[in-house]
Amino acid sequence: EIVLTQSPGTLSLSPGERATLSCGASQSVSSSYLAWYQQKAGQAPRLLIYAASARATGIPDRFSGSGSGTDFTLTISRLEPEDFAVYYCQHYVSSRWTFGPGTKVEIK
Amino acid sequence: EVQLVESGGGLIQPGGSLRLSCAASGFTVSNNYMTWVRQAPGKGLDWVSVIHTGGYTNYADSVKGRFTISRDDSKNTLYLQMNSVRAEDTAVYYCARVGSWTSYGIDVWGHGTTVTVAS
């Protein structure tokens, strides 16, 4: 069973700053099935990135994903006020979805 | 507009049963993988179950044998039958669509329905 970890647990940044979020897998995984979601308080998650680096429909280009093997990164180039939220990475294999514990991006 | 609307949540005693419903609009449930994901209070996302286009189903180990996912194609609705519920099943339950072009990323989510298991 693949376990996903995310770091840091909380990221305190100011609007306009760059955010770098990490997702680690307990074993090498296919980047084709690695996704990232954003969840704001009281809302459902929203798909940001799939296949490690492809932006979902309507996602601004300040969001980018990268990585392979066991290490993946979500980067927000310049934080907008609406970007402060919790971010989850997720992996799919054999009809199972596994989520990481999340990284909270909060206003410094 | 593509939309999912869950219903059926509520307060239920340990050991009891509950059926969640998820009405879809703007797309056909049977043409997509459909899934349930839950979120316990203050916790992260936890995948529960999936139903494939062909009807194949799969479950997280924590709910296998207790929960059953199904769909009614005539009503374009997804269900989750929850039996023998436990306190640890307390969560917001999201109905969601697995995208056809998103490498199994989940691209449409309902607003969620809250299930509270307590005596």
Describe this structure in words.
The complex is a heterodimer of chains A (108) and B (119). By secondary structure, chain A is mainly beta. Chain A has strands spanning 4-7, 10-13, 19-29, 34-39, 46-50, 54-55, 63-76, 86-93, 96-99, 103-107. The radius of gyration of chain A is 13 Å and the shape is globular. In chain B, 40% of the residues are buried. The mean pLDDT of chain B is 97. Chain A binds chain B through residues 32-33, 35, 37, 39, 44-47, 49-51, 54, 56-57, 88, 90, 92, 95-102, and chain B through 35, 37, 44-47, 50, 52, 56, 58, 60, 94, 99, 102-107, 109-112.
Oligomer: heterodimer
Derived structural class of chain A: mainly beta
Order of helices and strands of chain B: EEEEEEEEEEE
In angstroms, what separates the terminal alpha carbons of chain B?
39 Å
Query: Strand content of the residues of chain A, in percent?
Result: over 45%
Specify the number of helices of chain B.
0
Q: Overall pLDDT of chain B, averaged?
A: 97
Largest interface: A-B, 26 and 23 residues
DSSP summary: helix tally of chain A: 0
CA-atom Rg of chain A in angstroms:
13 Å
| Classification by helices and strands of chain B | mainly beta
Give a count of the beta strands of chain B, DSSP E runs of length 2 or more. 11
Helical proportion of chain A, percent range: under 10%
What is the molecular shape of chain A? globular
Beta-strand residue percentage of chain B = over 45%
The backbone outline of chain B, from C-alpha atoms, is globular
Poorly predicted runs of chain B: none
Helical content band of chain B: under 10%
How is the biggest beta sheet of chain A arranged?
7 strands, mixed
Along the chain, the helix and strand elements of chain A come as EEEEEEEEEE
